[in-house]
């Protein structure tokens, strides 16, 4: 199979890397579309992020992304830093900031001179200079707040997605991070800590319930845990949360701690036998090369629910079997 690597963090490309699974013969732009990097097809292909693509040591332009992958292809997709808040700098804001800097300098000089005249001291005296600096600082702070209100920061695609996404039907890990291949910290003293993930979080569906599994690492050695919280709320206030504390050398017994979520089967639409495009989906790679698995779980999800609009204007139940 082709070897495809996605580097999502342009500042730490050696750490935040994802191996993408794709079958031989798959088009490269199909892989990019599946990973949410591009949208559209053909001439209407639009980048959703700023990134570059290298195949077999050669850089590819956008017109070359329609190529089909062969077994020995080595592909690197690297995201690049997005400048200007994701939408470019506002030239009016730049001009306003320059004008504010000029006004601030003028106010400082005027305040120092006015104080010197009133107090009968030299304009270059320490006190006069301090008065001028204080006046300039006040103007600078007030002007910056005014400009921030007039020119709010541009919204990036990721920011807009977070604002529009509703957590009603989804659950996910937030706040903590996974620092793969980095050193494990050693903690000293009494403090509040947001522990790193010891494994990638994953979710499981059981009927109408979604369960989130997270494994954390406090650090090397043993610790006296005073209290466990979710944000500022004690974990005891959440009746639906179960947890266990695993000490060095012990095994995790609450849930499987070595679970891989396949990137190849995310968001696949299954067609019914009554649809013209009905076909079998797959096969797909379930786990990375060189690894073994003892269980495969598949989640069938209805993101918008399962129902139909009846003639009375209400919603009626539907059922599906597979």
Protein model, in words:
By secondary structure, the chain is α+β, with helices and mostly antiparallel strands. The protein has four helices and 15 strands. A five-stranded mixed β-sheet has the order 2-1-7-5-6, with no helix packed on it. A hairpin with a 6-residue loop joins strand 3 and strand 4. The longest helix has 29 residues. The chain is extended. About 3% of the residues have low confidence.
Major β-sheet annotation: 5 strands, mixed
What is the helical fraction, as a range of percent? 10-25%
- Could you give the order of strands across the largest sheet? 2-1-7-5-6
Oligomer: single chain
- Kindly state the number of beta strands: 15
Globally, the shape reads: extended
| Low-confidence blocks of residues | 161-169
Number of alpha- plus pi-helical segments: 4
N-to-C order of helices and strands = EEHEEEEEHHHEEEEEEEE
What is the CA-CA span between the terminal residues?
Answer: 29 Å
What is the alpha-carbon Rg in Å? 28 Å
Structural class: alpha+beta
Strand content bin: 15-25%
The pLDDT mean sits at: 77
């Amino acid at each position: 199979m082709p070897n495809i690597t996605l580097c999502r963090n342009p500042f730490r490309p050696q750490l935040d890397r994802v191996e993408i699974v794709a079958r031989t013969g798959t088009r490269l732009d199909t892989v990019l579309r599946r990973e949410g990097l591009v949208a559209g097809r053909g001439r209407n292909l639009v980048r959703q992020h700023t990134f570059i693509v290298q195949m077999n040591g050669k850089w590819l332009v956008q017109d070359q992304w329609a190529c089909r992958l062969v077994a020995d292809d080595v592909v690197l997709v690297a995201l690049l830093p997005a400048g200007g808040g994701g939408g470019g700098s506002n030239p009016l804001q730049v001009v306003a900031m320059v004008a504010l800097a000029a006004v601030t300098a003028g106010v400082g000089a005027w305040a120092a001179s006015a104080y010197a005249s009133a107090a009968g001291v030299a304009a270059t005296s320490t006190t006069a200079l301090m008065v001028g600096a204080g006046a300039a600082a006040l103007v600078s702070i007030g002007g910056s707040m005014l400009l921030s209100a007039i020119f709010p920061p541009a919204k990036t695609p990721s920011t807009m997605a977070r604002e529009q996404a509703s957590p009603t039907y989804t659950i996910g890990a937030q706040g903590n991070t996974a620092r793969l291949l980095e050193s494990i910290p050693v903690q000293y003293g009494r403090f509040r800590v947001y522990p790193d993930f010891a494994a990638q979080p994953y979710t499981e569906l059981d009927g109408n319930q979604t369960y989130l599994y997270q494994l954390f690492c406090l650090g090397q050695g043993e610790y006296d845990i005073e209290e466990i919280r979710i944000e500022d709320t004690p974990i005891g206030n959440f009746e639906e949360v179960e947890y266990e504390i695993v000490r060095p050398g012990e095994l995790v017994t609450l849930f499987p701690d070595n679970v891989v979520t396949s990137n190849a089967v995310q968001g696949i639409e299954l067609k019914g036998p009554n649809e013209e495009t009905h076909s079998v989906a797959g096969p797909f790679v379930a786990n990375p090369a060189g690894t073994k698995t003892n269980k495969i779980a598949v989640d069938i999800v209805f993101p918008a629910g399962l129902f139909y609009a009846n003639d009375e204007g209400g919603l009626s139940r539907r059922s599906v079997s597979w």
